[in-house]
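call fold target=Type II secretion system protein
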Amino acid sequence: MKVSGRGRSATQRGLTLVELLVVMAVLGILAWAATPMVELSVQRQREQELKRALWEIRDALDAYHLAAQQGLVAGGASGYPPSLEALVQGVPDVKAPGQMRYFLRRIPSDPFAPPSTPAALSWGLRAYDTPPDRPGPGADVYDVYSRSNRMGLNGQPVSQW
């Protein structure tokens, strides 16, 4: 029987328990070192989703306001929708009786809100007649913001985006 340089025969191949533990320790250290990168990637993805959702809702709010200015929909005093749901459910078209105007297919959820929160309730609402530094709900929806108190990767709270 031929013996290799490590004291094992040529037919005995494999890892010893010590070698296996060393490999497991190295893999554990690599996984531990990669964790912050994964968390950063998740944060970046959620921030991109937030930006996309804010733009989608704000575009719909602007489209509603423009339609109200053009006399296509009956807008309130401010010309903004009474709720986020009105953007999805549609509003009667003033110039085409029996027709509805829709501004969103669905209300996107705030990615920083708890998953069990309905999409329309996940956003903070700002009415037209509220100041920018103290936004609050009112008779219409002029703007939306995230209710999260998390800090963005850019150093600005996501609620101020």
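return ok
Strands lie at 91-92, 100-101, 123-126, 143-146. The radius of gyration is 28 Å.
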